Amino acid sequence: AQTVTQSQPEMSVQEAETVTLSCTYDTSESDYYLFWYKQPPSRQMILVIRQEAYKQQNATENRFSVNFQKAAKSFSLKISDSQLGDAAMYFCAYNAGGTSYGKLTFGQGTILTVHP
Amino acid sequence: SQTIHQWPATLVQPVGSPLSLECTVEGTSNPNLYWYRQAAGRGLQLLFYSVGIGQISSEVPQNLSASRPQDRQFILSSKKLLLSDSGFYLCAWSPGVAGRTQYFGPGTRLLVL
Q1: How far apart are CA A95 and CA A97, in angstroms?
Q2: For B32, which of A45, A91, A102 is closest by C-beta distance?
Q3: Do residue A50 and residue B100 have CB atoms under 8 angstroms apart?
Q4: For a designed S-S bond to A65, which of A28, A60, B13, B105 qualifies (C-beta 3.0 to 4.6 A apart)?
Q5: Residues B70-98: tens digit of each pLDDT
Q6: Which chain A residues contact residue B38 at CB under 8 A?
Q7: 3-state secondary structure labels for all residues of B72-90
């Protein structure tokens, strides 16, 4: 079974600085998808960024980028120029390809605090 | 654009009472639909998913059931709630067939007393 591990229960960063959140996963599949979701205090899950395993290029979305290391099964999220609104819980998630019907396996989350 | 709705937003129910949570999606057809539960603010557990009307797959045995009476409607139910059913319930959808990204609704906070 696939597992997703986020080893940092909590992280903090100063406003305008950069922070990296870690995620590792375990799978025997070669085709899969990885995601980072953000959950602010409202608790609605918001998609931050997505990475297809077959793509070697790391995904970027404005201030958010990933470092995808397929051989190491690592998928970290870098937030540049951190803003107060980035404070939230961040979840890493995995979805196998094929006929998995889009089922997501989530990590346990990392609480990010942004200090002014 | 697509929109996903959940109601109610908050629910307080006594132990042993029935439950019905509703999720609807607008702006798409034949979506895959999912119910998740999040306990104690950590990690999401997939409860049910559906790839079409009347097609429900359960991920974990429990006191809950799900139904999909219409293409864009997904309902989570229980005949008798347990204290352990308390939590935050999230509905999500993804495009059918080739879609992988899931988009979540605002969630329902359920407290069973």
Answers
A1: 7
A2: A102
A3: yes
A4: A60
A5: 999 999 999 999 999 999 999 999 987 55
A6: 43
A7: CEEEEEECCCCHHHCEEEE
